Amino acid sequence: MKDIFLRGVMLTAGTMSFVVPASASESTGSAAAALSAVSEANELLTEDDLKRRGWRIRLGAALGTVPDYVGAQEHRLKLLPVVDIRYGERWHLNFNSLSYSALSSGAWQFGPMVKYKAGRKESRSAVLQGLGDIDPSLQLGAFLKYRTDRMLFRAEYRHALKEEQGDSIRLTLGHALFKAGDFVLAGALRGKWMSNSAMQTHFGITPEQAAASERGLPAYAAQRGVSEVSADIFGRYELAEGYRLVGLVSYTRLLGNAADSPLASGDFGSTRQIKAGIGFTVDF
Q: What's the pLDDT tens digit per position in 18-68?
């Protein structure tokens, strides 16, 4: 089993370096959200295999379309890694997020988590030119999860170590919807709340940024609140044992101060965000 794990980690590193030719900090928040959706949908669709002891390694890649940044009108095609590594029922590595189930009682789990939050490069979109980059940051937090064979509820609190990136709370409610032979379908609803500093960093525009904006974006002070709600549909088809095709379609509606931001409204942005993709995974 140790050899299998080492081989899996090596393949993970190879996959990540292949599908992310630049640094991980250039990933968009939209892409990270899509990867999180895939990981949580996996929990709904894998049933008993997630209850096994020892290592379970699932690696792959997905090709999908995501907004240039959260709130963008324009989309781009991205090749993304699918990395899901678990040990027992407690340790879980999902590409850029590591969690540990410290307390477990029946279907409930609770524990700490750490996540690498990708930044936002102003070069990613002409709309962002002049606003400067958002640096990547580590986020520390905790999660609470309730999972049955067909339903998943997960709540997360995250605090960014970079002070200006603030705090966020995320809620997910998912349910398996349909199964026919080797094809399974699941759905999920999501919500996200952001603190003052988190909202200002991602959706606000300071007077200095407004003066430097190449698109002439006005200054905007964003305040805490619910920033978005999403609906996801995830499908999986098992080609053979351990080999799967996966697909995701996600619709996100920005709300509150996020929706009112010049980055997500007017001529340059959109409060309606679509992500879609298809991928291939292998179990080890």
A: 333 334 444 556 666 666 666 666 666 655 554 566 899 999 999 999 999
Encode pLDDT of 220-276 as tens digits.
999 999 999 999 999 999 999 999 999 999 999 999 999 999 999 988 899 999 999
Q: What CA–CA distance (Å, rounded) separates 201 from 270?
A: 18
| Fold for the domain defined by 2-283 | Porin (2.40.160)
Per-state percent for the chain, helix, strand, coil, to nearest 5: 25, 50, 25
Distance CA 209, CA 207 (A): 5
pLDDT of residue 89 exceeding 90: no
> Which of helix, strand or coil describes residue 41?
helix
* Residue keyed to tokens 């640094």: 23
One-letter identity of residue 92:
H
Average pLDDT over residues 106-131: 95
Is the alpha carbon torsion for 114, 22, 192, 47 positive or negative?
negative
Beta bridge mates, 131: none
Q: Cα separation of 284 and 238, whole Å? A: 15
Q: 48, exposed or middle or buried, with CB in 10 Å at 0-12, 13-18, 19+? A: exposed
If 0-12 CB within 10 Å is exposed, 13-18 middle and 19+ buried, where does residue 22 land? exposed
Residues 6+ apart with CB under 8 A from 223: 196, 199, 200, 257
Task: Compute the distance between CA of residue 220 and CA of residue 264 in angstroms, rounded to an integer.
Answer: 12
Site of tokens 């094809």: 183
